[in-house]
Design the sequence.
């Protein structure tokens, strides 16, 4: 039951009607009998500043941030966690003691999903894409593990810009290139992560980056797209006998980290995961 004492957690995005986060977090709050509710707010870009001020004014305890606000919202937050600042994007905000502070849990979510399946240290990792998700995952990988990282993008120049930024901030090295290198490089890779929207609903029929014949069975294939649950890339990897990781796992674990930030408690991970699969 929602009362005047119920703590509100929100979601800022545009659009937000497709989001699975309300189902995941409200299931956790209900299971733990916590007096919280998670509410999505459709925030148009021109009103983002006012929305952050409104959340503070309304005593909202925190909120997630999704497309297209993850980068711009940093301009309106008085405090940003160092990791989120380096990534250049915020997906979680906590409001406490009169201060709104931004965090980024996307990279952590992706890494935890992979760690469930395979060790990461000293592996060759290929990341497809050079956008915000790639940036978060790359940062988390390079700051947490010794890996050989290769970022491939449709426009190699954008991948090179990301490389320069990561190397400058993390004092590390990595490689970049265009998608045409994928067929050659996949043979020696251990982990492949797709951070692009290729194959995302309603474009399920997009041609996958690789066919089954091109995917070595030893490669772990992680597609961050979670709708549909089985993208074209995941289907081809399964045919090849490779181990696969659904994008739903990243969504789950970034939510787990956000839950901890807002409440200071460990969430019921199994309940959150069941809610996601039930919703889909």
Sequence:
């Amino acid at each position: 039951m929602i009362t005047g004492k119920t703590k509100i957690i929100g979601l800022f995005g545009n659009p937000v009607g497709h989001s699975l986060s309300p189902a995941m977090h409200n299931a956790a709050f209900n299971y733990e009998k916590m007096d919280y509710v998670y509410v999505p707010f459709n925030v148009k870009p021109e009103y983002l500043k006012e929305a952050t001020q409104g959340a503070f004014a309304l005593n909202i305890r925190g909120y997630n941030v999704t497309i297209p606000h993850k980068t711009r919202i940093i301009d309106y937050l008085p405090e940003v966690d160092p990791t989120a600042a380096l990534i250049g994007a915020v997906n979680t905000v906590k409001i406490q003691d009169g201060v709104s502070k931004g965090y980024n849990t996307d990279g952590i979510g992706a890494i935890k999903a992979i760690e469930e399946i395979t060790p990461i240290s000293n592996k060759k990792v290929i990341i497809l894409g050079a956008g915000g998700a790639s940036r978060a995952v790359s940062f988390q990988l390079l700051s947490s593990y010794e890996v050989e990282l290769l970022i491939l993008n449709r426009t190699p120049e954008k991948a090179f810009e990301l490389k320069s930024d990561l190397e400058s901030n993390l004092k590390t090295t990595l490689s970049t290139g265009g998608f045409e290198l994928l067929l050659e490089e996949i043979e020696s890779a251990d982990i492949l992560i797709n951070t692009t929207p290729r194959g995302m609903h309603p474009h399920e029929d997009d041609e996958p980056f690789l066919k089954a014949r091109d995917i070595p069975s030893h490669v772990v294939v992680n597609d961050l797209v979670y709708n549909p649950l089985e993208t074209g890339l995941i289907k081809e990897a399964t045919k090849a006998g490779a181990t696969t990781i659904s994008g739903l796992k990243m969504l789950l674990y970034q939510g787990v980290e956000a839950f901890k930030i807002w409440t200071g408690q460990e969430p019921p991970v199994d309940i959150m995961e069941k809610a996601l699969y039930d919703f889909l």
